[in-house]
Amino acid sequence: MSASALSPRVGSPRPPSEVVELARHLVAGDGGDPRLVAQEPLKRSVHRLCFEVGAQPAWVVVKRLFPRQARVNQLVAERWLPAAGLEWACPGVRGIFHDSGGRAVWHVYDDLGGNGLDCHVCDPGQVAPVVELLVELHVRFAGHALLAECREHGEELGMAFFTQGVGRCVRLLKSVGSAGAPLSREQAELRDRLLGRVERLYGERHERALLLQTSGGPDTLLHGDLWTTNTLVVERTAGVEARLIDWDHAGVGPVTYDLSTFLYRFPPEHRPSILGEYREAADRRAWWLPADPTLNLLFETAEYARYACCLAEAALAAARGEPWGFEDLAEIDTWFDRLEPVLAGTEAE
Asked: Domain count of the chain?
């Protein structure tokens, strides 16, 4: 199991009438009176709308975002990727609606069509263009003039993400059971077991930081949530093209953050060939990756940082007495037991 795999506890809100009306206006263009004929939920807070314009269907995708995430997605689509010649790599933002309370922003996107990668089938003809796009993104933004702006508005996904996240877990786990009803024996054992895990990781922070500094390569723009569900493979006349969607967690850090997320989505037997494609594409652009044993350690650091992000939220809930907090803590505890190296059979250097 990997980070971000916890089940959401909040349903997917339907787009309000104002968002549907905005989308209808956008697809209408200079004339016509589009009629909404279909609405399909795609993910949590993401819907595909189909309008009938004349006798033809017109599709758009609408998504509900927190204001900060909406700003990042807009910067990615309208400023950052275009500055690197990659404006085609994500959906265009066609319209924006701010709700009256200021708690959410709805984006209206072009519907690019296509499908996300199937991590179980792992078709090389589908995976290859996605890998090429990842390498292009990572190489073009290493040392880019906008990287400081990306860091300012996006997420910090380097060593600070690991250190701060793990440190926060230590503090929050220590607070679990300090107030309110006494913990059961099972709850106390779970808390102590997780506390031992993150204290060990915190003790390794300097060693992991040194490895990242010497072997992690330069910081670059990262997608930040590179599950296969956030990829699109689109069939065009000229061939298969790749796109990346849902840039909510875009930020700055080493390529091993994106790569580890992506590779962990696939069965172990497919990971070496996918990494090999990334290496080959990187070599063509004079981009260097460390040897597999070192990569495994860097991938592990990134995955543990993601674990810590989920663990901190669950520990905070448990400390407040919310029942789902301990449910999530128990699930996350199993992640530590089941974590395997990205690349099996590779000994540490």
From this structure: 2
What CATH number has the domain bearing residue 189? 3.90.1200.10
For residues 142 and 81, state if they share a domain.
Answer: no
Could you read off the pLDDT of 2-39 as tens digits, one per residue?
555 665 555 567 899 999 999 999 998 766 789 999 99
For residue 181, the enclosing domain spans: 124-338
Closest CA to 244 of 261, 256, 266, 269: 261
Give the integer Cα–Cα distance in Å for 198 and 329.
Answer: 13
Q: Which of 42-46, 141-145, 197-201 has the lowest mean pLDDT?
A: 42-46
- CATH number for position 91: 3.30.200
| Residues 128 and 89 placed together within one structural domain of the fold | no
- Please report whether residue 227 resides in a domain: yes
Say whether both 205 and 264 belong to one domain. Answer: yes
Locate tokens 């690349």: which residue?
A: 343
> One-letter amino acid identity for 253?
G
Given 45, 78, 110, which residue is the final one in a domain? 110
Q: Give the whole-angstrom CA distance, residue 247 versus residue 222.
A: 9
**What is the pTM (predicted TM-score) of this model?**
0.92
Whether residues 91 and 190 fall in one domain = no
Residues 103 and 135 in one domain: no
**Residues 94 and 219 placed together within one structural domain of the fold:** no
Distance CA 104, CA 71 (A): 11
